[in-house]
Fold this protein.
Amino acid sequence: MIAFAPAILLALAVASTDAAVQASPEIPATLTFEDALRIARERAPERVAAEASVSSARSLVRTAGALPNPAASFMAGWSSLCDQPGCNQPVFTAGLGDQGALSFLLTGQRGLAVEAAEQGVAAAEAQRRDVARNLDFQVKQQFVNTAVALRALRFTRDEAALAARSVELARLRYQAGAISDSDLARLEILHLQMEQVADRAEQVHAQARAALAQLLGLRTGSPTFTVEPGPSRSATPPARLDGASLASLV
């Protein structure tokens, strides 16, 4: 059995991880909750790195169980500096060895190495599950933050539009002499304040959307998608809780 060097396997795993991370995912223009989870699970750098770690750990199991190939050697030669009778005759030397394979098996070193490598696989798989749980939580949390920021942005824009309409009507009333210039100025200041609130809401929304795009694996360009916080299958209670009563849960 030929054993591949762990460094080569790790290099291949890292190269595949880099290639997967560099390719930006396709994010739809309208991003739903389920789409965000699906894209993050497929293309998030943390998830790809965790998968590469598991693959590397599994390759180490195969390497730990590999036995060295037997070695054979043969040598022929003579000495031209010898002046004693017979010492200038050809000399042949042959050797055959297992390179420690037999002692590796008999002493139990191979079993210990394989067991340690399998424990490494179990640890890598546990870390992958932990990464998946954390990633799902972060995506869900950031999706909600982005949706709330979008609702706030739309609300403040509507309020700013109403304030602008109020200023237009106030100017008509001012021209008709129905209100004073101080009343008009007060409404104009209110309109400017609403515009500032709308600008701040737009900044908050842009920051929340950029953070969500980061979790989805977007590395180039600015995010242009719009979140759609509609009904989600993830909000459905588990089957064992569906229809359960309070008494059965206590």
About this structure: Strands lie at 30-32, 71-77, 91-97, 226-228. Confidence is low (pLDDT under 50) at residues 1-23. Residues 109-175 form the longest helix (67 residues).
